[in-house]
Design a protein that fits this description.
The chain is an alpha+beta fold and about 240 residues long. The chain has a domain of about 170 residues. Helices cover about 30% and strands about 25% of the residues. The chain has 7 helices and 10 strands. The chain has an 8-stranded mixed sheet, sandwiched between helices. Strands 2-9 form a two-stranded antiparallel sheet. β4 and β5 form a beta hairpin. α4 crosses α6. The protein is globular and about 45 Å long. The protein starts with 5 loop residues before the first strand and ends in an 11-residue tail after the last helix.
């Protein structure tokens, strides 16, 4: 039986060598094509990391960066999620969602009046579905979304941070060489026995996800755009939305 999961969010600079080793080993368990060099490169470009632990064992993590973007003559802020994994025995925990929702709210409260967007690049459908759990509006999606704002933010992000790999037509990031990819048969692999509209949409939007192709996804980070579940996880339910 899995132990209780505890989460924390710390600067990447506070990770110990043992933390980094455990994170890398966890990535290797669930993804193919992971190298220590690529793992360390991702960490070097991130500012913070969410850690999930049971006692002293790391059972999940997500790396985070705050990135400036120039969009239609104005500056906005992207909260970018990089390498993310939760051990299969602990995926029933909501602690990762609790930590990321708290991170969102701290960011917008620290910079009132500024525009924030969550930018998630996804090569797995379960990761993609987190958007619907956390946000009322996000894109791309099968049933709604703001296509103009999404396209602007996705293009600004892809063109700046993945200029050699981003396709502005499909909003996919495709790497020329073999890249990190999900293991066949894992929880992130498409399960055609399921009748899940989000899964089907993700498969159409990112047909080569099993080869490591990433779909750029965008959600406005505002209190109003959080779902009731996300507000509760952030510990901010019952609080009025900030006016600024």
């Amino acid at each position: 039986m899995a132990g209780q999961t505890h989460g924390s969010t710390i600067p990447v600079t506070q990770l110990t060598p043992a933390d980094r080793d455990a994170m890398y080993e966890l990535m290797c368990c669930y993804y193919l094509g992971v190298t220590r060099q690529d793992f360390e490169r991702d960490l070097s470009h991130k500012h913070d990391v969410i850690l999930l632990r049971t006692e002293d064992t790391i059972v999940g993590f997500s790396t985070l960066a705050r990135l400036p973007l120039e969009v239609s003559g104005r500056q906005v802020h992207a909260i970018f999620s990089g390498d993310t994994i939760v051990d299969a025995l602990h995926r029933g925990s909501l602690e990762m969602a609790h930590q990321i929702c708290g991170y969102f709210l701290r960011a917008i409260e620290a910079s009132p009046g500024q525009e924030f967007y969550w930018v998630l690049i996804s090569k797995g459908w379960r990761t993609y579905r987190v958007l619907r759990f956390l946000f009322r509006d996000f894109a791309p999606r099968y049933d709604a979304g703001d296509p103009q704002t999404f396209a602007e933010i996705a293009y600004a992000f892809g063109a700046r941070y993945y200029p050699e790999h981003y396709n502005p037509t499909t909003h996919l990031i495709e790497f020329v060489s073999e890249s990190q990819r999900i293991r066949p048969g894992s929880a992130e692999a498409i399960d055609h026995r399921r009748a899940d509209a989000d899964m089907r949409f993700f498969e159409r939007a990112n047909p080569n996800h099993e080869r490591g192709v990433e779909l750029v996804c965008v959600a406005p980070v505002t209190y109003a755009n959080l779902t009731p579940a996300a507000r509760q996880l952030a510990g901010k339910h019952h609080r009025a939305e900030p006016k600024s």
